[in-house]
Amino acid sequence: MKAKVIFYHAGCPVCVTAEQQLAGALDPAKFDVEAVNFADAPERIAEAERAGVASAPAFVIDGAPFHINFGASLADVKGGA
Amino acid sequence: MKAKVIFYHAGCPVCVTAEQQLAGALDPAKFDVEAVNFADAPERIAEAERAGVASAPAFVIDGAPFHINFGASLADVKGGA
């Protein structure tokens, strides 16, 4: 069974680069990658926060958050910045 | 031909987690991943800096730096902290 990886992003340039270079680089034999854009799915911000995500873009792999560079804080995302 | 990915780290707990969860997750059909521990190879700090790496752990993929969470700044690494 493949492991579930969630890539949370906010549509920002840093996010797009991370998605193309890193999310697209994960082994498709081992991982199912779901990309969540907070702009399209603001209801999932709380879920990301519970996993420890503080900024976007970030992966959650096996329950652990991995922030990639820095695009926007979740506070900014919630504020619509 | 596989793309070259370098994973720079400093042996810190944040680094080890990132290596296990992310460096180990990259598609082996597409990438050759080299792990560089600054503690073992301090001569490669300058190379990482030239690629834009400011902290460890970080990937350099196709010349672009991707910092993963925050383990240590390169200044700390150079200072032996």
Please explain how this structure is put together.
The structure is a homodimer of 81-residue chains. Chain A has helices spanning 13-21, 45-50, 74-79, and strands spanning 3-9, 31-37, 55-61, 64-73. The first copy, chain A, has a four-stranded mixed β-sheet with strand order 2-1-3-4. In chain A, a hairpin with a 2-residue loop joins β3 (55-61) and β4. The radius of gyration of chain A is 12 Å and the shape is globular. Chain A starts with a strand and ends with a helix. Chain A has three helices and four strands. Chain A binds chain B through residues 5, 17-18, 21-22, 25-31, 59, 61-62, 64-70, and chain B through 5, 17-18, 21-22, 25-31, 59, 61-62, 64-70.
What would you say about this model in short?
The structure is a homodimer of 81-residue chains. The longest helix of chain A has 9 residues, at 13-21.
Descriptive keywords:
alpha+beta; globular; four-stranded mixed β-sheet; homodimer; 81 residues
Total number of beta strands of chain A:
4
For the sheet with most strands of chain A, the description reads: 4 strands, mixed
> End-to-end span of chain A in angstroms?
38 Å
Largest interface: A-B, 22 and 22 residues
What does the overall shape of chain A look like? globular
What is the element layout, followed by pairings?
The structure is a homodimer of 81-residue chains.
Chain A: E1 3-9, H1 13-21, E2 31-37, H2 45-50, E3 55-61, E4 64-73, H3 74-79
Parallel strand pairs in A: 1-2
Antiparallel strand pairs in A: 1-3, 3-4
